[in-house]
Amino acid sequence: MSGERILLIDNEEGLCRMMEAVLSDSGYKIKSYTRSFEAVEDFNAGDYDLVISDIKMPGMDGLEVLQRIRSKDHAVQVIMITAYATVETSIQALRKGAYDMLTKPFEPEELLYRVKNALNHTQLMEENRELKKELAGQFSFDNIIGSSSGLKTVLETVKKVAVRDTSVLITGESGTGKELIAQAIHHNSPRKDQRFMAINCGALPESVLESELFGYKKGAFTGAAGNRKGLLETADGGTLFLDEIGNLPLTVQKTLLRFLQEQEFMRIGDTQPIKVDVRVVSATNADLQLEMDEGRYREDLYYRLNVVNIHLPALRERRSDLPLLATHFIHHQNKKFGTSVQGLTPEAMKLLSAYDWPGNIRQMENVIEACMTLESADLISLSVLSQFITADADSNTTPANIASEDYTQALGEFETRYLLNLLNSTGGNVEEAARQAGMNMATIYRKLKKYNIRKEDYNS
Known about the structure:
This protein is α/β, with parallel strands linked by helices. The chain contains 19 helices and 14 strands. The strands form four sheets. Strands 2-1-3-4-5 form a five-stranded parallel sheet, sandwiched between helices. It has a five-stranded parallel sheet with strand order 7-8-11-6-12.
């Protein structure tokens, strides 16, 4: 039984009763009216999941019913019934917000099919609204973790620039959360209901980057089998985030500058300019002043991008935030994997707070995830944490460096070292190594094969 609430409005009492019986038998909760004035007067937003109304009725016709109901509840879907489904009538109804038109006479099966479609559409719209609310909450300022003075200064600036439609350049070391700040700007701006598009300018070769940004016309180059929109066109009305903007080739810099000046561009191979309304937020961990001095970056583009500069402090500059961030990442991993790690031991927290975190927030998140993968106790211990970081942040040979790499690679390097040390300590006894590691022997052998560890690699 579905239980959705449906309002029926039709002055033909026989048809009204037939629809009520068919829909009630399918589990819907029905309220029916044969007088349109009365139905509209009694209607309140949120009372119903769907309205079905005839168009041709005495007094207040169906189009006026539709208009008044939609003015009270913009979210409710309305199906209009008519015996005269002219194109003009259909267009009028759809323009006023009708979801569907049902032409008399119709079979009960067709009525149920149209109702089901309309309610599914309502559910999808509701899910979309919930996702948007969740997304907006994810990038609200309250969800940017930290209370240090440096971060507070950043967030005050972000709040001010979010509502202003101006170009922003976010600077800071790798892993400081530049894209998170860009998303916070977008989701707290008047463009929040439009698209947020992101591209890493350092990850693509020049030719690919140019076509990704600006799109291309059919036949512009070998392989261009059709017209294709670029990110600027796709992001129309929204925000485009250009990460690693310092890696833009000079030819692309020139085209981007023209867009920022004119708000228009041309697809590759096209001669007609395309005008769009896009806010550009960019980020870099490079010294753009040095790049300009050495002729690798256009000064005029720099000043167009850097209308407002937001510099993110490195994690070592906001040590008071380290316990908060660690707690946040532990909570996130618990939620993701259904674990129940409570935090870190005092000794582990002391090491975490003393470490300089050269990979910043991204590194800490990876380290916490790796620790929780291996830790079997309620608290992350010093022995587990110290396998990933050490107090000597300047050493290039410490396990700390693996955390700023790709997580899979980092975990693989750690497991290789861990297994070698473990097997060395047990004299190559795999059974004893499995017992000490809390693994079964099959897992040990599988990992030895995975990482191509041979007997000659450890003392036997």
